[in-house]
Amino acid sequence: MTDIKIIQSPEQHTAGIRDRVPMAGLSDFFARAFGETMQALGTQGLSPAGPPFGKYYGSPGKSVDVEAGFPVPSAITQDGDVAPGVLPGGRLVEAIHIGPYDTLASTYSEVERYFTESGLSPGPVMWESYLTDPGVEPDPAKWHTRICWPST
């Protein structure tokens, strides 16, 4: 069982790229988005204010409306496809997934069950913060992913 809780969180500025991506193309999209976002931040003399994220608009099907990038200390200036954005603040349902990305669906199922059992309604977006760098920790069983889903 995943530890799931309700937290209060401030809104967080972000820099990233948003696109509709086939599910099979997510890894390539994330690599491009993270690379281009880091380049844009460097050009603007900024550094990330936290780990990389993937923000999902609605439920995925064969494709997903997704934004990927980094939290930043303040709004950025758009640079090519890299645009300013926000991770919403307020009441969030938070879960820490431990394991490979291809098992995230089981944690999302637990989070959805938590919403139902708590009488809460999920908001229209959710995001994942990738707390473990696979380049530093190659064992997917040790990866930590923070899932945040605003509740209404």
Which CATH class?
Answer: Alpha Beta
User: By helix and strand content, what is the structural category?
Assistant: alpha+beta
Number of domains: 1
- How far apart, in Å, are the first and last alpha carbons? 24 Å
Q: Estimate the mean pLDDT confidence.
A: 95
Task: Bin the helical content.
Answer: 10-25%
Please give the radius of gyration in angstroms: 15 Å
Largest sheet: 8 strands, antiparallel
CATH homologous superfamily heading: Regulatory factor, effector binding domain
Shape: globular
Examine the coordinates and then state which fold CATH places here, giving the name of the CATH topology. Multidrug-efflux Transporter 1 Regulator Bmrr, Chain A
Largest sheet strand order: 1-6-8-7-3-4-2-5
Number of helices: 2
Write the layout of secondary structure elements.
Blueprint: E1 4-9, E2 12-22, H1 26-43, E3 53-57, E4 63-71, E5 83-87, E6 90-98, H2 104-118, E7 125-130, E8 144-150
Antiparallel strand pairs: 1-6, 2-4, 2-5, 3-4, 3-7, 6-8, 7-8
Task: Give a verbal description of the structure.
By secondary structure, this protein is an alpha+beta fold. It has a single domain (4-150), classed as Regulatory factor, effector binding domain (Multidrug-efflux Transporter 1 Regulator Bmrr, Chain A, Alpha-Beta Barrel), CATH 3.20.80.10. It has helices spanning 26-43, 104-118, and strands at 4-9, 12-22, 53-57, 63-71, 83-87, 90-98, 125-130, 144-150. An eight-stranded antiparallel beta sheet has the order 1-6-8-7-3-4-2-5. The chain is globular and about 45 Å long.
